Amino acid sequence: MSRITLLLAGAALLAVPLQAMAKDATVAALATPAKPAKAYHFELITKSNASPYWLAVRSGADEAAKKYGATVSFEAPASGLDLAGQIGMVNNAVTAGTDGLILAAQNPQALLKPVKSALAAHIPVVTVDSGLSPNIADTFLATSNIGAAAALAKYTAAHLMHGKGQYAIVDFNHTASTGIARPKGFMQGMKAYTGIKRMGPIQYSQNDVSTGLRIATTMLTQYPKLDVIFGANDRAALGPAEAVQRAHSKVKVVGFDADLGEIAYVKAGIIQASILQSPYDMGYYAVVALLDKIAGKTLPKRISTPYFLLTPANLGSAKATAAIRQYAPDYKPAG
């Protein structure tokens, strides 16, 4: 499948009803870059290299760079918990004089100082997926995580729990902006349903599937009337899904993202809903935004990228296939 076809398919997700654009701009607000006066070199630094999600961001950035005559170097810590490593990578990129920085911040406050150094050196900065607080980057491309998680919660409450029951949350960490926003949004979405109760505190898997498996296994024993476990990213959903499968439990798992392991669990009916983001588009349009900034164009402070609510019922649809291909370009639906 061609990358241009993938990009067009991703853009088609803008028509998906379950998305939170609100007051934010969309990628349509970005200008098509003119041919740059020189071959710019950009640095892409994500939270880790341990998830297909970040490789999809990289793939999008590489495609845009190729199209517009730039190059992109990819760096990421092996672990999403290596904050010192990520800070060092940003500092090194600034010292090396990169022409632009694309960053998915492990911590919204801890990365402020190195990003300020980049901006002071007149290096444009675009954050993707996980931003800064306050948002000092030139622009921030991301899913509306609170809105998407709230939409997932409302779907879960209405269609999977029928307005009553118990749920628990497995998050991936409590320091990344996404790790903060998604449980917040999910709990906000559940508030309208007085017959639904959250069981226990939020548990943290630290982006480790085996830790999520252990946490969820304990939940299944500790809360025998549990109906749903929400996993706040791909790693946090896979552990609970495996726990449910091993226990032959009727507990439903809902989550974020589209690791191919998650898709298998959706097909099996263990993961009953997952929010699919647009990682390829984030990487692609981050490069476009850097080129626009260098060309003197004004960027929106925040750009919302679309999301799609995947369920077993819509898994075979064209929209679902387009959404999954944001993560896995060669994905082919069965049948």
TrEMBL record:
UniProt-annotated location(s): Cell envelope
Residue span(s) of domain Periplasmic binding protein: 44-297
Predominant cellular place of this UniProt entry's protein: other
GO cellular component entries: cell envelope
Leader sequence segment: 1-22
A molecular function GO annotation: carbohydrate binding
UniProt keyword annotations, A-Z: Signal
Key word Oxidoreductase present: no
Gene3D superfamilies xrefs: 3.40.50.2300
Family: Belongs to the bacterial solute-binding protein 2 family.
Protein name in the entry: Monosaccharide ABC transporter substrate-binding protein, CUT2 family
Natural source organism: Acidiphilium rubrum
